[in-house]
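PROTEIN DATA CARD
Card holder: Tyr recombinase domain-containing protein
Chain length: 304
Origin: Thiothrix lacustris
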Amino acid sequence: MRNFQSFDDLINLYTRERTPSKAMVQQLGVVTRSFRQFAKVHHLDDIQRNHLLEWKQHLLNERQVTVTSYNNYLRHFKTLLNFAGEMGWDGTVVMKGIRRLPEHKKKKRTLTNESVQKIIGYLHQPEQHNMPGWFWEAVVKTLYYTGMRRRQLVGLCWGDIDRQHSTIMLRAENSKTREEWSIPVAPPLQAVFDELARLTQARLGRMFRTDEQVFNLPLFKSGYKGKVMTVEHVSAAFRRIRENTGIEVSPHRFRHTFATKLAKQGKIRDLQQMMGHSDVRTTLGYVQPDLNNMRQMLGGLGEI
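Structure generated from the sequence above:
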């Protein structure tokens, strides 16, 4: 006998049964909310195949989400409905034959050194003092020198940074792969952490605890709900930076930049470890061919 009717009931049951990551639960909420608002469907038994097909067109044509985003929505939706099937719901047939769309692989978009410098210059402007600019400069440099994800950034605690050995522990609970690993701290980033530690202690009026957040925006800027920084705070800040600099920047673009630059050194296994990729093929996606090397190869053809 199933004990759910609504999407919220199902998500709650899925959370208890499967213990997914917090990010997974949040995304399930985003996806089901989008479907409910479009199809005006609130109970699983009311889902019709046509709802799903029209929702797809709504996302792609009206919302203009990317194919990758649509496939992400579909994957989460299927995960939830397949779980409902395991729990006794007999409506999984509505998903039969609804497949992910083919994705065209594009070159990873990265940031030039000039763009990064322009962003830092923007954050140095006096009018960005209340942002506060110095705080987001520290965030930018952390993303640039580590390639970590937003979730890892906001989940970073002072106890994760080993200042003696210059390493950062990226904990499993903030990882996409649910694995834990360490990465080195570049010397310029160590200076950033040292200054942030000094400012944090001054603001707190005491030594910070090891379980306290490294990047705690509400500590330095009033007016925010809650006492910790969230991924939403990060997204909002980068949206503001993007609008005011004209640079297409995001935390994930810093991750692409980090991986693409380091991939040129050819140490793919080491890069795989730093990126936290479970499959080396994901890391290889950052290896970009060198046009100059290709031109030299053409010289081997000779003349005819």
